[in-house]
Structure formats: C-alpha cells, structure tokens
Amino acid sequence: MPTPTLSNRIQLVQGDITKQAVSAIVNAANSSLLGGGGVDGAIHRAGGPAILEECKFLRARKYPAGLPPGQAVATTGGNLPARYVIHTAGPVWHGGSQHEAEELAACYQSCLKIATARIFESVAFPSISTGIYGYPKQEAAAIAVREVRQWLAAHEWPQRVVFVVFDEENRRLYEEALAEQ
Ligand code: AR6
User: Fold this and answer.
1) Strand pairing partners for 12?
2) Taking the complete model, does pTM exceed 0.80, yes or no?
3) Ligand 1 atom nearest residue 38's Cα
C-alpha cells in the first residue's frame, strides 16, 4: 500500500461531531469536566450518562482543581459511534494577550498526544474555543491546521484527523487554512 501523504490524512467535514465514526472525538469542554453547552452539551446528550460518570470520577480523583488549561483526558464514548471522547478545555478569548494562542495550540497537542500513545486510528476535532469562548475563528483555524500538520508529520498515529466544522464560516476558513499552509 502506498504511504499516505499528509494531506490524505486530514479531512474536513461540515456537520455534527457526535455522528462521526472515528476512534475518538474531541470535546471542547471546560475545566470542570462536568458538562456545559455547545459541542460539550451535544456530546453528553448523544453519548449518554457513561461519559459524565467517568468525567465525575476523573474530576474527583485526578483533577480536584479542574482540568488544567491546555491539558486533555480521555473517557469512554458511551453510546457515540466514536469509541472515546478526549476532553480538553480551550482558552477563553480575552483579546489575545493572555497566552490564548499557546493554550489553544497546547490543547491540540495534548489531544494528539493521547491519540498517539493509545494508537487511535482516527480523531475528530471541533473548532475548539470558537463558540462560547469567543476565539476569533480565522486565527483558531490556522492554529488547528498548523498543530495537526506538525503532529502528523512527526507521528504515524493517529493515521487520520477529521476537522468537523459546524457552520459555513468555519468551513470556508478551514478550507482556506488547509489550502494555504
Ligand atoms: N458538532 C461540531 N461542532 C459543533 C457542534 C457539534 N455538534 N456544536 C457546536 N459546535 P463551543 P467553546 C461548534 O461553544 O467555544 C461549553 O459550555 C461551534 O459552532 O461548543 O470551546 C463548554 O462546557 C464552535 O465552532 O465550545 C465550555 O464551557 C465550536 O463547536 C464552553 O462551552 C466550539 O464551540 C467551551 O466553549
């Protein structure tokens, strides 16, 4: 079989991340790990109570002060088509001077690190921080694409990354970021 090129290993899909049949989907969570709105709410609704149970356990045992910024942790995918959920808490946008870009990049790296260590075949990412947390979408897309490309160039696993965008604007911005760099 020919070696897949980097661009073959990255896909862009517009739709609902909870429907993705991948090894793991990433949740744009918050440090409490106890659920919320946006994609976090959608994942817990679709995945059922097993995800929240594991999140509560992790919160109590491993992260009593909350999941630190830029870190990630995996749980079951419950009833989702994806076997696992990787939870990460993106930065809240405060204008860009409070290390938001570094923190967002760290989120992507931490999720990918878990995927590599656990030999996940495929991972789907939402556009972390670009909803309720208010991160400018164009900058966030550029960081997402840059971090995933760098990681895949250096690691065999995950073999495939899917960017799942919800809205038309993000779809266009990711298309541009993927075409550009
Ligand atoms: N599939 C894919 N993308 C989605 C979906 C979905 N089902 N639903 C929303 N998006 P957000 P944040 C997109 O607000 O900005 C929660 O309360 C959405 O259009 O979900 O990181 C958490 O608990 C946007 O582009 O996450 C935190 O408190 C992107 O997902 C806080 O929100 C992220 O939007 C995190 O805020």
Assistant:
1) 163
2) yes
3) 20
Spans in the chain with pLDDT lower than 70: 1-3, 181
Instruction: Please classify residue 172 by burial: count the beta carbons closer than 10 Å to its beta carbon, then call 0-12 exposed, 13-18 middle and 19+ buried.
Output: middle
Specify which residues 125 forms β-bridges with: 163
Question: Catalytic: which of 39, 40, 130, 158?
Answer: 40
Contacts 24+ apart (CB under 8 A), 36-45: 36/132, 37/132, 38/131, 38/132, 39/126, 39/131, 39/166, 42/16, 42/17, 42/18, 43/17, 43/18, 43/80, 43/85, 45/18
Residue with tokens 């690190």: 113
Q: What is the ipTM of this complex?
A: 0.99
Report the alpha-carbon angle 52-119-148, nearest 5. 85
In the residue annotation, 40 being an active-site residue is answered as yes
